[in-house]
Amino acid sequence: MKKAGIIGSGIGGLATAIRLAVKGYAVTIFEANATFGGKMTQFSLDGFRFDVGPSLFTMPHLVDELFSLANRNPRDYLRYQKLDIITQYFFADNTRLTAYSEPERFSEEVERQLGIAREQVLSYLQKSARMYEATADTFLHKSLHKLSTYLSADVLKTLPVLPDLGLTSTMHQTNAEAFQDHRFVQLLDRFATYNGSDPYQAPATLNIIPHLEHNIGAFYPEGGIYAIAQSLAKLAEELGVQFYYTEPVTAILTTENQATGLRTTKGEYNFDLVVSNMDVMPTYRRLLPQIKAPEKTLKQPRSSSALIYYWGIQHSFPELHLHNIFFSADYQAEFQHLFQEKTISPDPTVYVNITSKYSPEDAPPGAENWFVMVNVPHNEGQDWDTLIRVTRETVIKKISRALQVDLRALIACERVWDPRGIEEQTSSYAGALYGSSSNNRMAAFLRHPNFSSRLKNLYFCGGSVHPGGGIPLCLLSAKIVSDLVPAGNKNV
């Protein structure tokens, strides 16, 4: 049996481990932290439970597929429900809009609250669906760095929708042309933040993202997002995957032109193939200093990061749901601060996730666990302590005004995570959540491939490589890696 070593147990690493185990490999995962999950971990504070990182769950079939591959019933490991209400939106002009899961109901709500014809909204969502269905098999499910991808019949499916892909325009330009109401344009532009990008720079191709949420749907896993990582770790262990915690990898061992093993803080291990779920920047800089790094790829502009306040709130708000957005008044100025000035806008958009809406045990009776996030630049040495303090006041005032409440008096406990902590605890270079941004037309092709062109038997998964960050794309990166490697019971 061939052996595979994986660096990191984020969701990409877990999914890759499962797929390789199914293919016949003896898999070992090395994790620098004391537990699995990467950004997908949890903690408790004064009776409140919080998911640390990801909060949105879409495309659950990609998780189910891992259990099916292993001949397991997915429902024996993870249960989830489709959300009836995806997001509650609060606009700067005090307009409120409920984003229902069902497209018809959502379009009727947009017509009722914003005055946009429901047919226009449905047409937009149908276009998003066509774009996704025509491009996903080529651009998300396969390597963009293999000639065979472009010789596949799937490429032919993209031809009819090429005019709709907006290859020469930005997300914002396309959305502003489609809708006159700046509030709905802002809602659609927000999807650029799903991979840490700027809608005023990112290509309109990213307008396929609304399809995932508004046509396929958003879901809530029982036990919160952490339950996803927990279920995958359990499956991996059942398949014989070995987990070595608090054992950071210090080097990828190479002989001539191939990866041959890993050196950790506790020893050296030989492997027939190596997969890095670590951000590609520290993978090259720290683990492969002997190899000429792909500098053009590594120097691509980094994605945004996040500033998160985890608040235990001594109150219950029936007007809030699982996902809530409090928009800024000037979205373009907000992104100007984020990507050009590399600071936090004085009027940021605020996202509030409250899992106790679906898991009451996540907070004491009559209270709620608030995950409060602001998009911020990646770390370039900003005065984060000041930014955290100032932004906290801004956020409290914004939410207090929108909900007509003194929020400050309701905060029972608090923890904060900023780009410095994100980098330190997850090895995400500069705290960038998604590796490189998608702020140019060629961004998808400039992401690091899922394999090394310099070293045989070295592969890459996770949010910093193709196809990108977020739960679904990390899962797809694992699928691509698995498709690239031969079976484990044969010579590699």
What would your notes on this structure say?
- 34% of the residues lie in helices and 20% in strands.
- The chain has helices spanning 11-22, 61-69, 103-114, 118-139, 147-150, 154-158, 171-178, 182-189, 209-216, 226-238, 280-287, 295-298, 331-340, 384-403, 419-426, 443-446, 471-484; strands at residues 3-7, 26-30, 42-45, 48-51, 57-58, 80-82, 85-90, 96-100, 218-221, 242-244, 249-255, 258-264, 268-270, 273-276, 305-313, 323-326, 350-353, 368-376, 411-417, 458-460.
- A 7-stranded mixed β-sheet has the order 8-7-16-17-18-15-19. It has a 5-stranded parallel β-sheet with strand order 10-2-1-14-20, covered by helices on one side. Strands 5-9-6 form a 3-stranded antiparallel β-sheet.
- α1 (11-22) links the parallel β1 and β2.
- α1 (11-22) runs parallel beside α10 (226-238).
- It is globular and about 65 Å long.
- The N and C termini lie close together (10 Å).
SSE topology sketch:
Blueprint: E1 3-7, H1 11-22, E2 26-30, E3 42-45, E4 48-51, E5 57-58, H2 61-69, E6 80-82, E7 85-90, E8 96-100, H3 103-114, H4 118-139, H5 147-150, H6 154-158, H7 171-178, H8 182-189, H9 209-216, E9 218-221, H10 226-238, E10 242-244, E11 249-255, E12 258-264, E13 268-270, E14 273-276, H11 280-287, H12 295-298, E15 305-313, E16 323-326, H13 331-340, E17 350-353, E18 368-376, H14 384-403, E19 411-417, H15 419-426, H16 443-446, E20 458-460, H17 471-484
Parallel strand pairs: 1-2, 1-14, 2-10, 7-16, 14-20
Antiparallel strand pairs: 3-4, 5-9, 6-9, 7-8, 11-12, 12-13, 15-18, 15-19, 16-17, 17-18
